[in-house]
């Protein structure tokens, strides 16, 4: 088997806003759309993201441990920019930190079971040969 995509859940009322943020702010391309889900890919990546509409009203209390993660030389600033975009589009968002090199964006009204993480590139230097 070969990894193809990861799936997360979004609140239906903010579904299109989050999809638009990923497309307009991070360059994701829409691969496929159904009534309840979308598949997106960022150019240069080889794993897709699937987001499904979820009617779940309660949010996972431990969702900070479930991330859609990105690399950035300026992770906090990158997430602050996304948070500002969200707020300008009616979606409350906040940035927090795991450490001084790892940050996360939560949009609690939209993200059901995950946050968006941004971390310094050196954190992805695992030393493993592929």
CATH class type: Alpha Beta
Portion in strands: 25-35%
Q: Which fold name corresponds to the CATH topology?
A: 2,3-Dihydroxybiphenyl 1,2-Dioxygenase, domain 1
CATH architecture: Roll
Spatial arrangement of strands, main beta sheet: 1-4-3-2
Number of strands: 8
Provide the low-confidence segments as ranges.
none
Q: List the total number of helices.
A: 2
Q: Can you tell me the overall shape?
A: globular
Provide structural commentary.
Helix content is 20%, strand content 32%. The radius of gyration is 14 Å and the shape is globular. It has 130 residues and is an alpha/beta fold. The model has no long low-confidence stretch (mean pLDDT 94). The longest helix has 14 residues. The protein has a single domain, classed as Roll (2,3-Dihydroxybiphenyl 1,2-Dioxygenase, domain 1).
Topology record:
Elements: E1 5-10, H1 15-26, E2 29-33, E3 37-41, E4 48-53, E5 67-71, H2 75-88, E6 94-97, E7 102-106, E8 115-119
Parallel strand pairs: 1-4, 5-8
Antiparallel strand pairs: 2-3, 3-4, 6-7, 7-8
Record keyword descriptors for this entry.
2,3-Dihydroxybiphenyl 1,2-Dioxygenase, domain 1, four-stranded mixed sheet, 32% strand, alpha/beta, 130 residues, Glyas_Bleomycin-R_OHBP_Dase, VOC family protein
């Amino acid at each position: 088997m070969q990894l193809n995509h990861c799936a997360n859940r979004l609140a239906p009322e903010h579904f299109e806003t989050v999809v638009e943020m990923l497309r307009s702010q991070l360059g994701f391309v829409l691969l496929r759309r159904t009534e309840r889900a979308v598949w997106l890919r960022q150019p240069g990546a080889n794993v897709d993201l699937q987001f499904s509409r979820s009617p779940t009203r309660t949010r996972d209390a431990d969702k900070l441990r479930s991330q859609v993660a990105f690399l950035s030389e300026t992770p906090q600033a990158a997430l602050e920019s996304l948070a500002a975009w969200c707020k300008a589009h009616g979606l409350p968002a906040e940035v927090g930190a795991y450490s001084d090199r790892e940050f996360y964006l939560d949009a609690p009204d939209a993200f059901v079971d995950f946050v968006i993480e941004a971390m310094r590139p050196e954190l992805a230097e695992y030393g493993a040969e592929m």
